[in-house]
Amino acid sequence: MTQQKIATIFGATGFIGRYVVQEFAQRGYTIRAASRTPNKAFFLKPCGNVGQVVPFPCDGSKKDIEAAVKNADVVVNCVGILFEKKKDQFTKIHVNLAEQIAKAASKQGVGRLIHISALSCDKAKSKYAKSKLAGEKKVQKAFPDAVILRPSVVFGAEDNFFNMFARLARPSFVCFLPLIGGGETKFQPVSVSDVADAVIEAASAPVGEYKKYAGEVFELGGPDIIDFKGVYDKIKQFTAIKFCTFPLPWGLAKMNAAVLEVLPKPLLTRDQIESLKTDNVVATKAKTFKHLGIEARSMDSVLPEYLGQYSYKKSRAEQLAA
Ligand SMILES: NC(=O)c1ccc[n+]([C@@H]2O[C@H](COP(=O)([O-])OP(=O)(O)OC[C@H]3O[C@@H](n4cnc5c(N)ncnc54)[C@H](OP(=O)(O)O)[C@@H]3O)[C@@H](O)[C@H]2O)c1
Q1: pLDDT tens, 12-29?
Q2: 60: Cβ below 6 Å to ligand 1?
């Protein structure tokens, strides 16, 4: 009897992590869904057969991390935060925890490590970006063959980007949305399914193919490059909500963010404004989806699947009949 391969996913309960779990489950892996709160990972169990997806407690201690990666064939790190609620949280999670996972994977003789970083972390001046870059360096030092994936803004049914703007655009909220810093920042939104496919390709490619990926950084962007106006145009197109936009200079945006930052789950932080000053697009010389043999999905093929829920054009009766 051939033994099932084991994949340990840190951050399995998150937006990207859950798609990664699904893909491994479909390929017959046993999955350790590592989480600080394993109960939160129970919703992942139906992704596989009985006992295939195992919620695994991990409080970030060396002992828990080593237990989670022991005998694993592949380890994926999907842990990350967008804003700090406590001092030095970016460093603790993006740098120290990432290093601990890489060190444990190396010590336990794990075959492959895939680390999710962020596009433009080598260019942007935000604390978020700097911590993601510092994390990459620690991971590369501890596990030189690690495959690093740097996605642009990720879209999908549970995303916090298109969904957030669509929610804000609803007539009951605001009817004006800001073009932050004039709205010229460029994004290259990438589908969460494509990010998961990239993880799977790096995790399960035959040895010969994998040799081309080991130790490399891949920048993951979709086929379309858009600015803020482009984002809002997509929301208008797929929700039929009418709203206006207005330019919000960087200084004013930062002042607004300083107020919003005090919310438990801030809509925007000053550090995110800093990130937005740098384009979020794949560099010309970067390794990309093409090098992983993946053709990325367009926004137009995915956004209607979930932005439609914000549409006010059709009555409820019409929606049910559709
Ligand atoms: N979403 C995007 O658009 C995007 C774009 C570029 C890069 N990325 C990167 O992709 C990765 C995954 O992003 P995501 O959108 O899937 O994030 P997410 O939905 O917020 O999930 C992140 C996961 O990290 C874990 N986590 C959060 N705080 C933690 C802490 N203090 N200690 C340990 N674990 C913690 C959580 O797991 P538990 O609560 O279960 O422990 C959670 O499942 C991150 O590294 C992010 O920087 C995301």
Answers
A1: 999 999 999 999 999 999
A2: yes
**Which of 56, 9, 43 lies closest to 29 in space, CA to CA?**
9
- 280 alpha carbon to ligand 1 midpoint, in Å? 18
Does 81 contact ligand 1 (Cβ within 6 A)?
A: yes
pLDDT, tens digit (0-9, with 9 covering 90-100), for 260-298? 998 888 989 999 999 999 999 999 999 999 999 999 999
Cα–Cα dist 311/161, whole Å: 17
In this structure, which residue's CA is closest to atom 34 in ligand 1?
A: 79
Residue 141 in domain: yes
- The string of pLDDT tens digits covering residues 126-170 is 999 999 999 999 999 999 999 999 999 999 999 999 999 999 888
For residue 107, the enclosing domain spans 6-154+189-222+281-296
Gyration radius of the chain's alpha carbons = 20
Q: What is the position in ligand 1's atom list of the atom closest to the CA of 13?
A: 43
How many domains is the chain partitioned into structurally?
1
> Does the beta carbon of 79 sit less than 6 angstroms from any atom of ligand 1?
yes
Does the residue 313 lie in any domain?
A: no
How far is the centre of ligand 1, averaged over its atoms, from the C-alpha of 173 (Å)? 27
For residue 76, tell me if it sits in a domain.
Answer: yes
CATH of the domain at 112: 3.40.50.720
Q: Does any domain span residue 125?
A: yes
Distance 53 CA to ligand 1 centre (A): 19
Residue 153 and residue 164 in contact, taking contact as beta carbons nearer than 8 Å: no
C-alpha 78 – ligand 1 centre gap (Å): 6
